Each structure stands twice: as C-alpha cells, then as structure tokens.
Amino acid sequence: MAEAMTGAHVGINRNRLFWLSCIALIVTSMTFALRAGMMEDLGSEFGLENEPLGWIASMAFFGFPAATVLGGLLYNSIGPKKIMILAFLGHVAGLLLTIFAGGFWGLMISTFLVGFANGSVEAGANPMIADMYPDNRTTMLNKFHVWFPGGLAIGALAGYLIQNYVNMASTWQLEIAIMLIPTLIYGYMIFTTKFPDIQSDTTLKTDTIENLKALFAPLFIIMCVLMTITATTELGTNQWVGPLLENTGASALIVLAMVSVIMAVGRYFAGPLVHAINPTGVLLFSAIFSAIGIYLLSIASGNMVYLAAIVFAIGVCYFWPTMVGFVSEYLPQTGALGLSVIGGIGMMGAGMWQPVIGRWLDAAKTELSEPGMTEQAVNLAAGQATIGKILYFPVVLVVAFLVIFAMRKKFTIGPAND
Known about the structure:
The chain is about 80% helix and about 0% strand. The protein has one domain: Up-down Bundle (Growth Hormone, Chain: A). By secondary structure, it is mainly α. The protein is built from 18 helices and no strands. It starts with 13 loop residues before the first helix and ends in a 12-residue tail after the last helix.
C-alpha cells in the first residue's frame, strides 16, 4: 500500500533525503572508528597518557547529547534542514581543527565540535525519516541506523589501509582528512535538496510542552538509565579497542571492522527477531551475548580474539536501535524530543565513562608491571584486566532486562498508532 504523503512532503525526493541522512551518519560513525584507531598515535604525538586521552574522547560523547537535546527542542520550530546545516558546519570545523590541533585543549575543542555535529545528524534525520515514511517507520529507521556500523567498518578499513600502506611517519591527520570527503558530499546535497517544510503542515507539528511532560514517565526514565549502560557497553569497548587489544596478536582495526559489519547485517535483518521475541526479549538477548563476548575478550589472545569479537558484535548490534525503537513504539507521546533525548543520554553516559576506562588501563599497567615482564606482556595483561571491568556493564543489563522481560505483560503502555 502506498504511503500517505502529507502537505509538507509533496514535491520532495524522499530517497535523496534518506541517502543524504545515511551519508551524514557514515561521517558520524567514521569519527568513532578512526579516533579509536588513532588513540595511541595521539598519545605519542602530544605526550598524553590514557586518562587525558579518555577526556578527549569523552568530548565527542558530551557534544552529541548537547546537540540532540537542543535539536529535539528546536525541531518543531526550525525543521530538519537547519539542523542538518548545523551538522555539516560542525563536521567541517571540527575535522579541520583536529588536523591542525596543537595539543590537549585543541583536541578537546575540536572533538566536542565533531560530537555536536554527530548529535545534530541524529536530531535532524531521525524524526525527518519517521515523518517521511509514516507507514514504514521502523523499517526505514533500522535501514538508516545500519550505516552507523557500516560507517564504522568503512572508517576502520580506511584507517588500516592508511596506517599500513601510506609511507608517512604520522598518518592520523590524513585519516581525519579522509572524512572531509563524505562530509562535503552530504553538505552539497543539503544545499541542493528540498526538505520537508514542517512549519507549513500542522499534521507534522507536535506540542513540545507535551513532549517535555512525557519525558517524566517512569518507564522513560528507566530506559534512559539503561541506555547509558547499553551505550557504554557498545561504545566504551569500541572506542578503546586499540589500546585494549594491543599485543593480543589481533589487529584492533580489523576487529573493529569485523564487529561493524556483523552489526550492520544484524540490524538490517532485525525485523524477524523483534517480531519473534519482542523488543524486551531482544534487549535481554543482547545483554547476554554482550556479557559472554566481553568475557571472552578479557581472556582471549591471538585468533581467539576474532571469535570473541563475533560474539560481542552479535550482542551489541541490537542495543542502540532497539532502545530507540522501544521509545518510538511504546512512548510515542515523547515525540522527536524523546528520540533525541534517549540517544543523547546514551552518548553522555558513555562519555562519562571514557576517562574512567582510561584510568583503569593506566592503573592496570602500573599494578601488573613486575620485574622481568616485557612491555608487551604488561600491555596485554592490562588490556584484559580493563575489559574484565567493562564486563560489569552487561552483567547489570542482564539482570535489568530479565526483570523487564518478566514484567512485559504488565506494561500499561502500547505501541504507537500511526
């Protein structure tokens, strides 16, 4: 059945807008992948230990929620085009400032700008796609979010090729510069594409005050708390994949690329799983597999790291879209603001744990260093010990989602009716 077109959507090219959003999301995820692969390079270049590197990484996670909350509040009044323009400008400024950064504070500011741009992409694209496909929201939002792990894979492979086949003493600036290519592509598309004019169509407008009131529903608050843990389980591990897996005998960027491909495929075909065991069942499944995967990563070395990464990827691939989808389906009264807030809180929670993970790694290297141990042995033991501490996050999730799954029939809420 053909989808209904509202007045604001007459004359627009939905396919072009959808792919514009996907390219912008690819840039977002490439920033995570390439930064994860260059953490050690930044430390060497600027003489930074893991804790200050964690603070730099956290700026992307803090910039993201700042943009999503602001974008969610403004979406009803300014529309998606202006928010996407803000994303484009933030990406250009942040990437260029990163390339020419002179030290810790330059990296802090530029990383915050990149994070703000990333959050603006989510704030503008998520509700726009949901509005453009009113009869097919879940499918199209899942297809959109495929490109986060897809972009991670692209970024990881690009970083691997540059690091291994470009004859330069330092390659991290080139890795950052590569991201300007898709940024300029989606920027060109923004200024040459007609966007929905939500101001002209009252059917697309929602009451922001009512959205704000809905954010205080107990279930929404609980999901926000759990979102901080699911996001840290996924992004906290992925962001530190380089330092954590060094000296295991496995390539950190290849592991990240492999995890990202599995996540993309899993998200693309998530529909049957969601229908079979419902969203709460999917979240419980994800928590269990994430816990097993992280445990295996904490003890694996050599080729076993790749097997552990596969289990980890199967677990975390469903976390983000299922948490966002849960809010969209079961708490529709939160509107575009709810989608922005749940994503923003997830990034903020993950950001808060970045310096903590860095501190764990630094402390482990000190505590586990013994006379006669090689640097490689110390780094391996410290990385595995730190991953062991990250294991607490999915263990908490297993308990929480088990309770939610058991109580799912007592929910007084229901799916949104388009």
